[in-house]
What we know:
Blueprint lengths: L2 H26 L13 H19 L6
Helix pairs in contact: 1-2
Amino acid sequence: MNMTRKLILFTVLGIAVGAMAGYLYYSCIGCVSGTCAITSNPLNSTLYGAFMGGLLVNTFVRPPKK
């Protein structure tokens, strides 16, 4: 498997898992008062989780050797 395809695959998986985790955080914990910028809205929480999931996965994927 090409390294670029592997990197894209892991990034997409990280984004998907992060988005699910962000939405689960909103639905289970969330923000009761509605004043929290990220967790008061399901869209914001899901997008933030997707962003953080993508970043987290990319920290563990090594770049190809030249």
